[in-house]
Structures are given as C-alpha cells and as structure tokens.
Amino acid sequence: MRPLTDATPKALLPAGGKPVVARLLERLAAAGFEELVLNHAQLGWMIEAALGDGARFGVRIRYSREPEALETAGGIANAMPLLGEAPFLAVNADLHTDFPFARLRTVLNDDALAHLVLVDNPSHHPGGDFALSDGRVANAGAPMLTFSGVGVYRPALFAAIARGTRAPLAPLLREAAARGRVTGELFRGRWLDIGTPERLAALDAELKAGRA
C-alpha cells in the first residue's frame, strides 16, 4: 500500500469518507461483538488516537502494541493475555465485507481449533489457499478457495508461539487442517481485500457512488 502507508496506518486509510477499520468496527458492533482487541505496530499511536476506547462505535477497544510487525499468528500470540481462554473471532483490518459476523459467535465444534471463512478466488489470488468439503477445510482438493482473513480460533492453536516472536498464520492452519481440526464455510457475498492503492481507490469510488 505504499506510498499511502508511509504516513498513515493501513487500517486508517479512508474509503467512502471513513477509515476502512471504522467500517469493520461498525459491523462487529452491530453483530454483538463488544470486547475488541486491536493489534498494531507501525504508526500504531495514530490508530489509538483515531479510535480511542471504542465508545463511539459501541464497543470497548483494548490495544496490543507490537514492538515490530509480528505477522498474523505472532500478533495474535502477543495479544493472548488480552484475549483470554475462550475462542475468539479475528478479522484482518484491511477488508471490506458484508459478511454476517453474528453467526460466528458459536461456530466452533468441540474438536475444531479454527473455523475459516473462505471466498471464491479473486483475480489477484487465482490459486486459492484451501479446499472445503462437508464443512471441513483441507490443504488440497478442488476447487481451491481463498481464505478471507476472517476466522474463529481457539487459543490452543497459538500455544507454541512465544510472545513477541514473528510467526505467520498459514503454517498453523495447514498443520491443523491436516489433522482434520479446521472447519470452514464458503461466503459469496461482498468481500474485498484492500491490498493495493488501486483496490482502495476502486472501493472509495463505489462507496461514494452508493454502490457498495
């Protein structure tokens, strides 16, 4: 997202007149999620200044401050003291979606370590990430689908990651999927990975035109 993120955190980049993360906060609040933890690293103070304690969104926000970008699993492990021992929902901040988050509140079954929301492969990720069969996520199969960045996890998935260390999420999910311990669902509603200035500009234009 550079040069846009040289002076502004990705989560605070505007689309349709408000930061992309603000739209997610509004949807999470509407779905009944009241206790939120936000990870941040680069320019994180700007995120805290912009969002505060979350009261204006109808939520309570606590912040997990990373000494450096720890990647997704490392960031979650670093935030674990704030997350507690129950399963939790994690959402990438650079998404635009109308996914009904409320249905993820009780989605994990007894043996699953994770539940992933998958989407049809976008043009910028044609190979996909995982397969889905009978509600179970697999590392191979047909068709391959893309992980949306929306998932529900048990803390046990991150137990081997020391706080403050860098760690990607994909290897943990693949290992758990290989053991049959990842469930999933396919979502075919509105979903956009705001990963480039061009995709952000397209979303901004849609929102301003009232089409998204």
Q: Explain this structure to me?
A:
This protein is an alpha+beta fold. It has a single domain (4-208), classed as Spore Coat Polysaccharide Biosynthesis Protein SpsA, Chain A (Alpha-Beta Complex), CATH 3.90.550. The protein has helices spanning 20-30, 44-51, 71-83, 170-178, 197-208, and strands at residues 14-15, 18-19, 35-40, 60-65, 88-91, 95-97, 114-119, 130-133, 136-138, 144-153, 182-186, 191-193. The strands form four sheets. Strands 5, 7, 8, 9, 10 and 11 form a six-stranded mixed sheet that branches. The protein has a two-stranded antiparallel ribbon with strand order 1-2. A two-stranded parallel ribbon has the order 3-4. β3 (35-40), α2 and β4 form a beta-alpha-beta unit. The protein starts with 13 loop residues before the first strand and ends with a helix.
Largest beta-sheet characterization: 6 strands, mixed
- The CATH superfamily title: Spore Coat Polysaccharide Biosynthesis Protein SpsA, Chain A
Rounded mean pLDDT is: 92
How many domain regions? 1
Q: Which percent bin holds the helix content?
A: 25-40%
Helix vs. strand class: alpha+beta
CATH architectural type: Alpha-Beta Complex
Number of helices: 5
* Rg over alpha carbons: 17 Å
User: How is the CATH topology named?
Assistant: Spore Coat Polysaccharide Biosynthesis Protein SpsA, Chain A
The quaternary state of the protein chains shown equals: single chain
Strand content: 25-35%
Number of strands: 12
Low-confidence stretches: none
Report the top-level CATH class.
Alpha Beta
General form: globular
